[in-house]
Amino acid sequence: MSSRIEDYALVSDLETAAMVGRDGSVDWFCLPRFDSPACLASLVGTEANGFWRVAPVGGGRCTGRSYRPGTLVLDSVWQSPGGTVRVTDFMPPRTQAPCLVRVVEGMQGAVRVRSELRLRFHQGRVVPWIRGDETGRGMVAVAGPDSVWLTADGPVEDLGAADSTVFDFTVAAGRRIALTLAWSPSHLSGPPPTLAVPAETALKETGDFWRCWSARCRYDGPWRDAVVRSLITLKALTYAPTGGIVAAPTTSLPGRIGGQDNWDYRYCWLRDSTLALSCLLRCGYRDEATAWLQWLMRAVAGDPADLQNVYGVGGQRLLPETEASWLSGYEDSRPVRFGNSAAGRFQLDVYGEVLDALLLSLREGIAVPAPLWSLVEALMAHLQRHWHEPDQGLWQMRGTGRHFVHSKVMAWVAADRALRIARLLGRDGVTAQWRAMRDEVHREVCREGWDARRGCFVQSYGSTALDATALLMPRLGFLPAADVRVRGTVRALRALDEGGFLHRYTPVASEGGTRNGMAGREGAFVSCSLWFADALAATGHVPEAREIFERVLAVRNDVGLLAEQWDPVAGRQLGNAPKAFSHIALIETAFALSAEPSPSRRSPAASGRRRSG
User: Which strand (E) or helix (H) includes residue 423?
Assistant: First the structure.
């Protein structure tokens, strides 16, 4: 029986991450970085595809667990007739080779503990060569370019299993044994230097790092604990060498159990760009915001015609999508995919996201690279030629493109932000053309995207389907929250509600097709539910907005993490986890409901500019 998605906690070293279940099993681990092949992949397969379980002999779920306050250090406690034991999991922020440390400490009585490590390199497929080390308390596994070392800093009994490494040991109250797993390129001789660092030192330094970082959070409202945990999660999903933020550390956790809607989210989406910048800046994390902007500028460099919606953590463009036939999928949800073909789809919204991020950065005084204005001109020249075309939309619909309302709104955002950037930089040469385009897009959206009979905006031109992205119109400044069209749309979108949570759009059966090219029913989207709370608060329904926000907080898992979706019928998380977009939306809503001052992103809505349409 697979663990539920909400059973997993996250530990990270800011370059990769491990998913730790309540049973003490690490079921997903990619080395040496987020988008590397997994060496522990039972999360999307079976135990034959790799895991590392540290728990009392006999197994079972932990009695309780929690992150140490303000950190990404995870404590899991098991209580048994023989005593109580605590396992502390953490990854020291990367300075040398990546490593995962698991400290087993006796709290009461004496407990027999088992560490069972089954490594399977190259996405849970390749069985490595394994040999013991000279101490008798460790081993090294090698396959292809990878080597993984495991050591124990105390006496253990090696049970000598054929296809895995099994250590048994007993911990009494007040005693502890640390197990450290570290990766190194297989062509290097000798153990990685991280193995020489005492576990106590690594634990103290890791805890200090996270406490110091989280203490900088400027949010001081009623939901500070939730905001800090979401910020820590966002930081944990950051690839420190480049500043890129992955959408999630996992692949192919399904939006529908048993379905095919399974995608690889270990990459960086431009749709997250401005919201991520906004969250980081308003919470006081200017260095992280600057690093994210610098990643964005490097990633989008080149011909605007080649602008993608998703890039690799290093800014790489080629993310070929493959299917892993040897993996059975999470709860038999096949296929398991690596790579993401969404990188090759045309999406109009990305131009607005990039220009919105650039404007926000300029207003916040972040240093922007010298070719900024050339980039703005190139993006707008391309967009002026192509904004009339259909695209795949924010939700990256597979199949024939459509004229999505949100995509056109983001084309308007692109022109609007380009005009504002020009004003800030004192450049007025081409602004008349951009202003004309902005006004034309606005008129078209208000004419073609509006359903007069229902009194709301729809998903795409000529469609009857609703889409939660319409909730973003006031935030983006396209229409003010007081506009009757916004209020009508907010009322209409209640039709997407199920069990107090919002689906992202009308079930596709009403449109005569399949959902995102995939048959079946998906869960409600966490981010959409939070957008709804934002829109309700903006239109004067603050008590209901707070109720929705508290409802979302209640479906976080026991350590405060959110996946992409929530199934209100089955009462479980769905989709890749933890999801950056969900945690970003949580932070945004907490600020909105706390009546905190908004960042520059929202100022256009209140600027009193003339709107057409």
Answer: helix 405-425
Q: How many whole angstroms separate alpha carbon 601 and alpha carbon 565?
A: 26
Q: How far apart are CA 288 and CA 396, in angstroms?
A: 27
- Give me the pLDDT at residue 344, please: 77
For residue range 252-265, list pLDDT tens digits in order. Answer: 999 999 999 899 99
DSSP tag of 4: P
Closest CA to 213 of 70, 94, 13: 70
User: What does the chain come to in residues?
Assistant: 613
Instruction: Quote the CA–CA distance of 89 and 446 in Å, as a whole number.
Output: 53
Region 569-581 average pLDDT: 97
Element (H or E) spanning 436, and its range?
A: helix 431-448
Give alpha helix (H) positions in 75-153: 121-124
Directed axis angle between helix 349-363 and helix 273-282, to 10°?
A: 20
* pLDDT value of position 167: 95
Report the alpha-carbon distance of residue 604 to residue 601 in Å, rounded. 7
**CA–CA gap between residue 247 and residue 193 (Å, rounded):** 31
Question: Which of the pair, 163 or 380, is modelled with greater confidence?
Answer: 380
Span 348-375, average pLDDT: 91
Would you tell me the crossing angle of helices 580-593 and 273-282 to the nearest 10 degrees? 50
- Pure H helices in 478-595: 484-492, 526-538, 542-554, 580-593
| Rounded (10°) CA dihedral 523, 527, 528, 534 | 150
Residues 447, 441 contacting (CB under 8 angstroms): no
